[in-house]
What does this fold into?
Amino acid sequence: MFYEIMFYEVIFYEVMFYEIMFYEVIFCEIIFCEVIFCEIMFCEVIFYEIIFYEVIFYKIIFYEVIFYKIIFYEVIFYEIIFCEIILYEVIFYEIMFYEIIFFEVIFYEIIFYEIIFCEVIFYEIIFCEIIFCEIIFCEVIFFKIIFYEVIFCEIIFYEIMFHEVIFYEVIFCEIIFYEVIFYEVIFYKVIFYEVLFYEIIFYEITLYEIIFYEVIFYEIILYEVILYEIIFYEIMFYKIIFYEVIFYEIIFYEVIFYEIIFCEVIFYMIIFYEVIFYDVIFYEVIFCEIICYEVIFCEIIFYEVIFYEIIFYEVIFYKIIFYEVIFYKIIFYEVIFYEIIFYEIIFCEIILYEVIFYGIMFYEIIFFEVIFYEIIFCEVIFYEIIFCEIIFCEIIFCEVIFYKIIFYEVIFCEIIFYEIMFHEVIFYKVIFCEVIFCEIIFYEVIFYEVIFYKVIFYEVIFYEIMFYEIMLYKIIFYEVIFYEIIFYEIIFCEVIFYMIIFYEIIFYDVIFYEVIFYEIIFYEIIFCEIIFYEVILYEVIFYEIMLYEVIFYDIMFYEVIFYEVIFCEIILYEVIFYKVMFYEIIFCEIIFYEVIFYEIFNEVIFYEVIFCETIFYEVILYEVIFYEIIFCEIIFYEVIFYEIIFYEIIFYEVIFYEIMFYEVMFYEVMFYEVIFYEIIFCEVIFCEIIFYDIIFYEVIFYEIIFYEVMFYEVMFYEVIFYEIIFYEVIFYKVIFCEIIFCEIIFYTIIFYEIIFCEIIFYEVIFYETMFY
It folds into this structure.
């Protein structure tokens, strides 16, 4: 026992401790003043059965302490027990660490074996006005440190306060934790209660090449954390709570997250201000059995966030569940994503079963000047994703603004969706209110080898979805390429859209420039029992939409089936197409193979549809083949076209080249109570339309019935057909069988100033045409 020991102006110079053993040592009331440790060597030091019982540190001052060339070599701490340590009313007041230098300190082969901290209580600890000034850790090496079976049991930190703690010019240079193993380390019931860090400033701190390997943080609360050049390897975060966290001017530079697991995370009132992620790498990140329960994002602000060269490599999401997620007042301001790469991302066995999103509110979300630059999705696989019994109830998007979003050089390469199933997905009372997309630009977006395989939508219900005051302003798609996109065995079964309302939707200055769809294949797509009930499009305006150099090349629809698709009570009210321009649209090698439309259209109403200044310029249909198309039991019931106006529509240089209709069958097509009311074609010009090598082969119209079709006040005003050429048009085995026009009424039809100028039928052949 050492009692009331005072060391004053003690100098240790070239001290060597060799084979020292401390047995049952007690330190009580020790004071170190002006201590210098120079060239101290601890060699083969063994601490055996040291017990600290009721240790109290009161008013400890370290002044001008220098550690120079300290070497800990083969130090063993064996069976150290801290039992029933109580730090009660410990006050650290005006503690100053000034000019502390650790130079060439080596910890070599230190072993902590069977250390137990049992029932340690820190009660009412106050750190007030602590200053760390000019502390330098230079060339500190921890080599082969092993913590074996370390147990922290029932440690409680109660009412700890750090007030005005300042770290000034602290440098950690070349600190290496090499082969540090925490084996069977358990933090059990660690509680930080009423911990307050007040006015903590980390100034000019450099954490350089620090590696934490296999560290476990259990029930930790982090407040005001700054990370710089840190590597996290196999970190598990369990039950983490971030409450009123502010990240200000945080820089993540060359940060690597390796095998990170987040479980039960709560974010409340998080603010990210001027956050920069630079050269961040997520390598082999596994999200395994993640449960996010009662996650609240409140007042999250992303201001001047830059993501630069972020790489996600081998990311796996396994069994993720989100329960009661709330986003409130999220603002993205001047966010830049630059050179983000997603490589070999696998979503494996993601099951969302009985997931309920109830009362989700996105309120006042603003995306301002968001830029996505050089984003690459390469070898992304979605495998066996099942959405079962998902309910979206009362989702509200209110005042969502997307302003100046730019997608630049986005590449989707080899994305595969395999066996995705949506089972009993319900969207109930989804409201989009005042959503604005302003100046969204897609530049050089490439989708390469995107495959949707065995995607099933079963019993998906959209109920009471409302889009209110949505504005799309200046959306530009520039050089967008869809290459080798395959939809294989997609099934939409029992999909119901009920009471969908689009109110005051405006598309303004939408431009598709050099959009290419190349080798898109729809294979075995089935739309079964899709019902659109009470769909209302009200005041939809397409203004200045331009499709420029859009190419559809090698698009194949193979075995596409529309079965019992019902459009019931669809109303298009005040839909306006104004200054719509289709320029240089090319449909090349489009194949429709075994397409079946079965029982489509019921009570469709087009009310006040206006096409104003629509221009089709240089539209080319090249090698379009319709093969084995069957329209079976198509019923148009109570279809009303009311006040449709085509104004200043121009078809200029439209070419139909090598169009083939092969084995097209219209079977039991019924038009029942179709009414065209006040249709006006005003100043419609067809100029230089060419039909070249069009072949109708084995086209059969069987049991087509037009019943109670009424054309009321149809007006063609100043319609001009100029230079229309039918060249080598062949009708081969065209059969009209059992066509019935019953009670067709043309009432008040006016053809005014219709001009057919230079119409040429050249080599038109009707071969084996039968009207039966």
About this structure: Residues 474-772 form one domain. The two ends are 119 Å apart (CA to CA).
